[in-house]
Design goal:
alpha/beta, 4-stranded parallel β-sheet
Length: about 110
C-alpha cells in the first residue's frame, strides 16, 4: 500500500506496544516515520530497522513528552530531517490526576 507515500508521521511512544504497532501500520501504508521514545532506545532502534524494511525512511528521536523543551526540540529535529510533519500520533503519555482541560500549562511539565 502506498496511500501515505511522501507523508511523514511522528509517533510518540513508538518504541513498543501500541505506538510501535501504529508506526508499523503507517510504514506499511508508505509513510516515513519518526519514532519517538523516552528511555527505550534499543527498542526504538529495533522499530526503526523494522520500518525501513517497508522501504520508508525512519529515524528515532529521544524526548520526554512531559518536557516542553524536549518536545519542541524533537519537532524541530523531525521537521529538519523530513521537511514537515503530516501526521501526528500522540501515543505516549503519563499519569496525571487532573482533567487535561483544567490543567495549567506549568503542570504539563513532569518533575
Amino acid at each position: 500500500m502506498s496511500e501515505l507515500k511522501g507523508k511523514t508521521a511522528l509517533v510518540t511512544g513508538a518504541a513498543k506496544g501500541i505506538g510501535k504497532a501504529v508506526a508499523i501500520r503507517l510504514a506499511e501504508m508508505g509513510a516515513n516515520v519518526a519514532v519517538n521514545y523516552n528511555s527505550s532506545q534499543k527498542e526504538a532502534d529495533d522499530t526503526v530497522n523494522h520500518l525501513k524494511d517497508f522501504g520508508v525512511e525512519s529515524v528515532s528521536y529521544q524526548a520526554d513528552v512531559g518536557n516542553l523543551g524536549q518536545v519542541t526540540k524533537m519537532v524541530e529535529d523531525v521537521t529538519e530531517q523530513f521537511g514537515q510533519i503530516d501526521i501526528l500520533v500522540n501515543n505516549a503519555g503519563w499519569t496525571a490526576d487532573r482533567l487535561f482541560v483544567d490543567k495549567p500549562r506549568h503542570e504539563w511539565e513532569k518533575e
